[in-house]
Amino acid sequence: MSMRHIRSLGFEAPGQPYFAGYDEHDPHPWELRVQTTYSGFSAGTELTFMKGTNPYLHSRWDEGRRVFVPGEAGMHYPVPFVGYMEVGMVIEGETRGVAPGTTIAGAWGHKSGHVIAPDRDRFFVLPDEIDPMLGVYVGQMGPIAANGLLYADHELAGAGSTTLGSSLAGRPVLVFGAGVVGFFTALFAQRAGASEVVIADPSPFRRLRAETLGFAAMTEADAVDHAKARWRGADLVFQTRASGESLHNAMKALRPHGCVIDLAFYQGGADAVRLGEEFHHNWLSIRCAQIGRVPPGMDRLWDHERLGRETIALLADRGAAIRQQLITHVVPFDEAPDFLRHLVAERPEFIQIVFAYA
After folding, report:
1. How far is C-alpha 43 from the chain's CA centre?
2. What's the start-to-end Cα distance of the chain, in Å?
């Protein structure tokens, strides 16, 4: 196959999404050439480039010391590549039993195509019975939520959990935030056998979607009251909203020695958090549960590949409902820049935006 031109969605400057482009190299015999069919837009992360609030635009991550160095931007505009929720069809190459015509999921950005090197790129074969559009959740977003359950298992039961969410069986669960991560966290908890799953979110639109999926849905204030009155406080709360006020309310919902499993990205800081209040008087913990690593001592049993397989299993169980309730916008890839400008200017209600490639 001859060289092809790839189009990539990126950000030329704050508020200015655009298409970048490059000519792709011919794949090596052991590589897979993929034609992208769908990509999911991650509002929590990718809008930080649209708004100019991403920390990498203002500081540099020092990997050796694992600190941000202010005043030394690690990234600069234009940012030609963003995105980590992709699905595509193999059109050339064969490796690991994957041949042309196979649908795969991974994280290669909002690009019209990609060359996958199996020794470098993680990818998952999507079973035929799963709607290909749902594959946008397999490479990263589903594993993010699943990793949150691993941190809950580690907090409640230690490092020996062999079944995702085993510590939540028979236990009520509270999730703050009805975005994609919040919904998948709740779905995983429900699948693990939680006795009750409550989603707290300020949006009536999102609360209705939560109720349709079988969850109790309420405002944050009502969720705090519910947890205190019905459960005498939650053992743990999954916090997925990028809001310091939500983090503070999550701590209010806990019982003494409770823990917030925190999956949020506080791009603007968390000024509403008050560590002298419930945090101080109830001996609380906040556990960051980002996807970069599994909890201490669990890496021999769990890794990103296994979290992706757990996501595929969830999609096999609940795929139709997830497709109907979570994917609120399907936008042609050619219209992506105009749609993102509309998204920021008009702020329509949405949960998951998917770009469809012709």
Report:
1. 9
2. 19
